[in-house]
C-alpha cells in the first residue's frame, strides 16, 4: 500500500488543495482547517447547509496564510465572497483548536472503497487516499493503525456520511441519490476517522503499512 493522494482544506467546508507532501502534527495536516466561517452567534457555518461554500477554493499561500480563491482570507474581497455564499453577516475567523474538526483531525480513504463508491473521491473530502487496497478492506481497519515512515496514524471508526457527498465538486449540482447509495451499499459509512499517534512528514508515493491494534483517542485526551 502507498499514499496515492494528499488533500488539505485550509478553510473549513471549502474545496481543498491537492498536495505532494505535508507535515503531520498532533492535530492533523499543517494548515488544515485554519479558518472557519462563523455566524453572528459564533456558530460554525458549513457546506452541509450552505453548499455554495464548496465552490470556493481554500489554499495556503507561500507565506503559509490561507487564501480564498487566491485572495487573502482576511481581505474584504474574500469576506464578500463568503457572505454571498452563506449569509450577509458571516465572518471569517482563524482558529486552530481541536473543535474545528467535525470528528477527528484526519479522514483516510482507500482506492478500493472509492472504486466501489463509483463517484469522484472529492465528494468524501479525505486527507489521505491510500492506494493498493483491495475492495472494501478498509472496513476491517478500525482499531488498527497506519505506519507511514516515522508517522503513526490511529484508526477509530468508519465515517458516517452526510449531505455534502451529494454535491458535484465542480458544478455543485446536487444528486440526492449519492447519499442514498452510500446508505444502501455501505450502511451510510465510508472512509475512516483517524487520529495522530506520532507525527512526521508525508509524501505521495510513500509506503503505508497496516499495523496491529492501537491506543484509542479517548485514552489520549483527544476531542471526539
Please give a structural write-up.
This protein has 2 domains: 2-28 and 101-215, PK beta-barrel domain-like (M1 Pyruvate Kinase, Domain 3, Beta Barrel), CATH 2.40.33.20; 34-99, no CATH class. It has 3 helices and 16 strands. It has helices at residues 76-85, 111-117, 177-186, and strands spanning 2-8, 17-19, 21-25, 28-29, 35-38, 58-60, 66-68, 71-72, 91-94, 106-110, 128-131, 145-148, 151-160, 189-198, 200-203, 209-211. The chain has an 8-stranded mixed β-sheet. 40% of the residues are buried. Residues 219-224 have low confidence and may be disordered.
Profile the largest sheet.
8 strands, mixed
Under the CATH scheme, the architecture of the largest domain is: Beta Barrel
| pLDDT averaged over residues | 93
CATH class of the largest domain: Mainly Beta
CATH topology (level 3) name of the largest domain: M1 Pyruvate Kinase, Domain 3
Following the backbone from N to C, one meets helices and strands in this order, namely EEEEEEEEHEEHEEEHEEE
Beta content:
25-35%
Summarize this entry quickly.
This protein has 224 residues and is mainly β.
Key descriptive features of the protein:
224 residues, mainly beta, M1 Pyruvate Kinase, Domain 3, 2 domains, eight-stranded mixed β-sheet, three-stranded antiparallel β-sheet, 3 helices, 12% helix, 33% strand, globular, disordered C terminus
Task: Break the fold down into its secondary structure elements and pairings.
Elements: E1 2-8, E2 17-19, E3 21-25, E4 28-29, E5 35-38, E6 58-60, E7 66-68, E8 71-72, H1 76-85, E9 91-94, E10 106-110, H2 111-117, E11 128-131, E12 145-148, E13 151-160, H3 177-186, E14 189-198, E15 200-203, E16 209-211
Parallel strand pairs: 10-11
Antiparallel strand pairs: 1-2, 1-11, 3-4, 3-15, 5-9, 6-7, 7-8, 10-14, 12-13, 12-16, 13-14
Amino acid at each position: 500500500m502507498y499514499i496515492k493522494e494528499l488533500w488539505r482544506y485550509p478553510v473549513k467546508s471549502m474545496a481543498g488543495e491537492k498536495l505532494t507532501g505535508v507535515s503531520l502534527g498532533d492535530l492533523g495536516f499543517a494548515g488544515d482547517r485554519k479558518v472557519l466561517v462563523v455566524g453572528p452567534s459564533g456558530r460554525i457555518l458549513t457546506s452541509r447547509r450552505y453548499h455554495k461554500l464548496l465552490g470556493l477554493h481554500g489554499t495556503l499561500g507561500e507565506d503559509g496564510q490561507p487564501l480564498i480563491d487566491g485572495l487573502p482570507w482576511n481581505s474584504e474581497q474574500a469576506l464578500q465572497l463568503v457572505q454571498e455564499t452563506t449569509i450577509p453577516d458571516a465572518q471569517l475567523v482563524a482558529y486552530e483548536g481541536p473543535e474545528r474538526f467535525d470528528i477527528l483531525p484526519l479522514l483516510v480513504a482507500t482506492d478500493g472503497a472509492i472504486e466501489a463508491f463509483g463517484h469522484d473521491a472529492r465528494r468524501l473530502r479525505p486527507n489521505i487516499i491510500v492506494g493498493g487496497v483491495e475492495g472494501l478492506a478498509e472496513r476491517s481497519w478500525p482499531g488498527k493503525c497506519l505506519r507511514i515512515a516515522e508517522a503513526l496514524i490511529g484508526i477509530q471508526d468508519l465515517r458516517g456520511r452526510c449531505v455534502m457527498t451529494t454535491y458535484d465538486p465542480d458544478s455543485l449540482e446536487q444528486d440526492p441519490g449519492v447519499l442514498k447509495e452510500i446508505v444502501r451499499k455501505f450502511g451510510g459509512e465510508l472512509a475512516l476517522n483517524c487520529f495522530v499517534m506520532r507525527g512526521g512528514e508525508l509524501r505521495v508515493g510513500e509506503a503505508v503499512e497496516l499495523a496491529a491494534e492501537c491506543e484509542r483517542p479517548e485514552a489520549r485526551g483527544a476531542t471526539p
